[in-house]
Specification:
Elements: E1 17-28, E2 32-34, E3 43-51, E4 53-57, E5 63-65, E6 69-74, E7 78-82, E8 86-96, E9 107-109, H1 116-129, H2 132-156, H3 163-175, H4 183-190, H5 194-205, H6 209-227, H7 232-238, H8 244-255, H9 259-265
Antiparallel strand pairs: 1-8, 2-7, 3-6, 3-8, 4-5, 4-7, 6-9
Helix pairs in contact: 1-2, 3-4, 4-5, 6-9, 7-8
């Protein structure tokens, strides 16, 4: 039997996004839009593909957006936007339940993300259908697109300078669950000394690396016990324990019961 598996102790949901309007505009020097009404509701995601645009938002100096930029702002705050030469861009109008946290009124530099063109076109074409399911899928697609952009920004501008190194270690651990990964090996993957690695890991993850690693293996074992027909011995092997005995002892110490007893209680 072959299968792949992934698990997290901290699943996350994304705030709802409701797409209201989509434009794909290929502007030239005649493109010059003024907005005088102040009651435009919702938010805007403006994604420039090529060329250059100029935007005036209430209370801010003129913003210049070029290729590969993303600008998020409140629709009601925009006053004037225009083009001096050429400007190809996507304009997404959307509303949320105010739970969303985004970097507004900043010109964000973001390379094209996976399937971005397809996702943009899907938003446009689905919204044209105007039935409830198509509108739902259009909003879901924009939500996915926004989260891709934010994911890219998070990777590009980590809050902690060592976060990419720790992310690399976490990816390495998850890709090598069948082999026991030592702290020395983790530190090597991170490119840090063992002492510095322990310090950095605690700063970012809030616990020592061994505690995290041990908990991850036990939590993964619980999922495998619940949802697969693997034997105790096979699970021990899959999670890098030296023997079924060592796995059972670690599980007992953490959970207070044996793996076989845990499986019977499910």
């Amino acid at each position: 039997m072959k299968f792949d598996f992934s698990y997290t102790k901290s699943p996350l949901t994304t705030p709802p996004v409701a797409l209201t309007t989509v434009y794909f505009i290929q502007a030239n020097s005649t493109y010059d839009v003024w907005k005088y009404e102040l009651d435009h509701k919702g938010l805007v995601a403006l994604r420039t593909i090529s060329g250059r645009g100029y935007i005036n938002i209430e209370g801010m100096e003129e913003i210049i957006v070029g290729p590969g930029t993303l600008l998020l702002f409140e629709n009601r705050m925009i006053r004037h936007y225009y083009c001096k030469d050429t400007w190809d861009f996507w304009w997404f109008g959307f509303i949320t339940d105010n739970c969303i946290s985004l970097p507004f009124d900043k010109v964000l530099s973001i390379d094209m993300v996976d399937r971005e063109t397809a996702d943009c076109n899907a938003c446009l074409n689905l919204l044209k259908e105007n039935d409830s399911m198509s509108r739902y899928l259009a909003s879901a697609t924009l939500n996915l697109l926004i989260n891709k952009w934010m994911y890219y920004l998070d990777k590009k501008e980590p809050r902690n300078p060592h976060k990419p190194a720790i992310d690399k270690v976490l990816s390495y651990i998850n890709s090598n669950m069948s082999n026991y990964v030592t702290i020395k090996e983790m530190a090597s993957v991170a490119g840090l000394s063992e002492r510095r690695y322990r310090e950095v890991f605690c700063e970012i993850m809030g616990m020592p690396p061994k505690r995290y690693y041990d908990a991850l293996r036990i939590d993964t074992a619980k999922e495998l016990l619940r949802n697969t027909p693997l034997t105790i011995s096979q699970i021990a092997f899959r999670l890098g324990y030296s023997s079924q005995f060592h796995f059972a002892r670690a599980f007992q110490n953490e959970c207070g019961i044996s793996p076989s007893h845990f499986r019977k209680l499910i």
